[in-house]
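Appendix B. Chain record.
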Amino acid sequence: MAHQRISIDAKVMGGKPVIAGTRVTVEQIVRECARGLAPAEVADQYPRLKVDDVLAALVFAADYLADEITTAAE
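Structure tokens predicted for this chain:
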């Protein structure tokens, strides 16, 4: 699945997925949301981010996890 707002480049943040044109990682955004911040609050913390960027990061993370192979706990 293509994610227009997400970029992965080995030369940027060690190849972690970032919002295109920034150094803000998907991981950073997911962690901020996990702390209880709303997407608008996360976007407000980064001058170049828009709410749609935050939402795109969450969709990317969900899509990534949907493709992961999981094993049952023993």
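Further analysis of this model is presented in Appendix C.
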